[in-house]
Write a structure and sequence with these properties.
five-stranded parallel β-sheet, single chain, four-stranded mixed β-sheet, 316 residues, 20 strands
C-alpha cells in the first residue's frame, strides 16, 4: 500500500509539471510578435555576395538577380583614377529574391560631379522593386534627379531616413500598406511631388519628411497618426489644405512653417501639444497675417492661437 501511494504521488507531480509547461507555452504564444527592425542588416558587410547585376547598354536597364540583400559596393566600380565603370542606366529592375536594399544602395551623391553624378544615376527614371523586399535603407534612392515615380510593394515594412530625398523630378509615389512610420526626410526636397496617399498603418510622420515639397497641394493624415514631427511640412509653399486626424496628440516645432498658402487649419480636440511656430508662421521670426485656427474651447489649439496672437474660431 505504501508503494502504491508513492507511485501515485510521483504521477501527480509529473502531471502538475506538464500542465505548468503547457500553460507557460500558451502564454508565450499569446504575446504580440515584435516588429523591431535590425538596422545593422541595412549596412554593408563582408558577407558573400549572392546578388548579381548587369547593364544592358542598348536599353539602358540595370538588372539585379539573385537572393539576398543589395549593397552599393556590389555594383559600383571605379577605375584607379576615379572614373565610373558602370554605364549610365535609365531604369533599374530588381529581380525577385532580393530581400533588402541597403543604406545608400542607389544614392547618386552627385555633389561636386559635373557628369552623370558620382554613381552615374542621373538618368534613372524608373525603379522596379519586387515583393520579396521587406526593408529599404536610409538614403537608398537619394538624389535620383530624374526619377519620376516609385511604387513600393506592400511587403516593405521599414524605410530608412531620407530614402528618396532630393529626387527633384518625383511626382507619383505609392507607399506600402504596413508601414509603421513615415521616416524623417524621406521626401525632402522632392519639389515636384504634388500629392500622396499615406498608409493607414502609420503612427508618426518624421522630422522634415516632406520638407521643401513645394508642389504638394493637399494632405490627409490618417487617423492612426499621433505625432507630426519637427518641420514635417516645412516650406510646402503650394499646400492649401491639411486634414488632421482625431487621434493626433502632438504637432511638433515648425511642423507647417513657411507654408505660405495655408491660411487656416482645424485642430482636433485630441491634440495636447503644439510646438513653437508649428502653425501660421512664414518663417521662425514672422507670423502669417490673417491665419485662422479652428478648434475647441479650452484646448491646446485655443491656447496656441492666443499665445501667438492668431484668429481663433471655436467649433465646440
Amino acid at each position: 500500500m505504501k508503494n502504491r501511494k508513492i507511485i501515485l504521488s510521483l504521477l501527480l507531480s509529473i502531471l502538475l509539471v506538464l500542465l505548468t509547461c503547457a500553460c507557460s507555452d500558451n502564454a508565450g504564444g499569446n504575446k504580440k510578435a515584435s516588429t523591431a527592425i535590425d538596422e545593422t542588416k541595412l549596412q554593408s558587410t563582408e558577407a558573400k555576395i549572392t546578388i548579381t547585376h548587369k547593364i544592358d547598354n542598348k536599353t539602358k536597364i540595370l538588372y539585379f538577380k539573385g537572393n539576398g540583400p543589395i549593397y552599393q559596393e556590389q555594383w559600383i566600380k571605379y577605375t584607379s583614377d576615379g572614373r565610373l565603370l558602370t554605364a549610365y542606366p535609365e531604369k533599374i529592375i530588381i529581380g525577385q529574391g532580393a530581400t533588402l536594399i541597403g543604406d545608400y544602395a542607389f544614392d547618386n551623391d552627385s555633389v561636386g560631379m559635373s557628369e552623370g553624378g558620382r554613381n552615374g544615376l542621373d538618368n534613372v527614371k524608373e525603379v522596379e522593386i519586387p515583393n520579396t523586399v521587406t526593408q529599404i535603407g536610409k538614403e537608398s534612392f537619394g538624389r535620383l534627379s530624374s526619377l519620376k515615380s516609385i511604387e513600393i510593394p506592400d511587403s516593405v515594412v521599414y524605410i530608412g531616413n531620407g530614402a528618396f530625398a532630393y529626387c527633384t523630378a518625383l511626382k507619383n509615389v505609392k507607399l506600402p500598406a504596413k508601414l509603421e512610420k513615415i521616416p524623417s526626410e524621406i521626401f525632402y526636397f522632392c519639389e515636384k511631388l504634388s500629392k500622396i496617399e499615406l498608409p493607414k498603418s502609420i503612427t508618426k510622420i518624421g522630422n522634415n519628411a516632406f520638407g521643401l515639397c513645394e508642389s504638394l497641394k493637399e494632405i490627409t493624415i490618417p487617423e492612426s497618426v499621433e505625432t507630426i514631427g519637427e518641420e514635417a511640412f516645412f516650406s510646402c509653399k503650394s499646400l492649401t489644405k491639411v486634414n488632421l486626424p482625431n487621434n493626433l496628440k502632438t504637432i511638433s516645432d515648425g511642423a507647417f512653417v513657411d507654408c505660405e498658402n495655408l491660411n487656416e487649419i482645424t485642430i482636433p480636440k485630441s491634440v495636447e501639444n503644439i510646438g513653437e511656430e508649428a502653425l501660421g508662421y512664414e518663417t521662425y521670426a514672422w507670423s502669417k497675417n490673417g491665419f485662422t485656427i479652428k478648434g475647441y474651447k479650452g484646448s491646446a489649439a485655443e491656447k496656441y492661437a492666443k499665445e501667438n496672437k492668431m484668429d481663433f474660431v471655436s467649433i465646440g
